[in-house]
């Protein structure tokens, strides 16, 4: 199970309805995005820090919070620029961000509310700065694409590790999951 980041990006773009008009709107507001990015980073890490479990992950290694603040600002700006027109670089970067979160033990239960927090904070700022609703919608769709990458990384890494360790086929693995879910439901 190796994910093709480009193909996944294309599929998620279609699924979320993230359009060319959304991309243009984001690019036109990239300077604004960069201006508010540090405030968004502050709000984001304050939110994570209020959760005992996530706070422990954030402070597990020296300098992590500091590094994260910078990478968040960069990430946030890329939401507006799309890096290479939402091409291969963008897809690879989003896939890598997903993998890094899996590596440091962050699961879907952490990431979903965290992305909702990003959207809520941006929403407040959009309103305060008199930005139109369609910019919020564009950003929201883009955040959902990114969220899908982080979520998918979790299952891809898990499945790949199990298949490698056990030698099972993907078909068998999927059947076991379906059977397991049926017995738990
Ligand atoms: C909206 C969701 C999130 C976004 C957009 C985001 C963004 C990022 C980015 C851009 C990186 C840097 C990746 C790299 O080094 O290439 C990163 C790493 C990391 N993130 Fe997140 N993150 C999110 C959710 C979370 C949550 C919920 C936690 C929980 C504590 C978390 C903790 C971390 C940690 C520990 C790292 C690795 C830091 C290191 O370099 O040591 N992130 N994140």
Salient structural properties:
mainly alpha; binds protoporphyrin IX containing FE; globular; 84% helix; Globin-like; 185 residues
Q: What ions, cofactors and ligands are bound?
A: protoporphyrin IX containing FE
* CATH T-level topology: Globin-like
The major sheet is characterized as: none
Give the CATH H-level superfamily.
Globins
Number of domains: 1
Averaged pLDDT: 95
Number of helices: 9
Strand content: under 5%
Distance between the termini: 26 Å
What does this structure look like?
This protein has helices spanning 5-16, 20-28, 30-49, 52-58, 64-85, 88-103, 108-128, 133-166, 170-184. The protein is an all-alpha fold. The protein has a single domain (5-184), classed as Globins (Globin-like). Helix 1 crosses helix 6, helix 2 (20-28) packs across helix 8 (133-166) and helix 7 packs antiparallel against helix 8 (133-166). The chain is globular. It starts with a helix and ends with a helix. The model has no long low-confidence stretch (mean pLDDT 95). Protoporphyrin IX containing FE (HEM) binds at residues 48, 54, 57-58, 61, 64, 67-68, 71-72, 75, 96-97, 100-101, 104, 106, 110-111, 114-115, 118.
Short description:
The chain has a single domain, classed as Orthogonal Bundle (Globin-like), CATH 1.10.490.10.
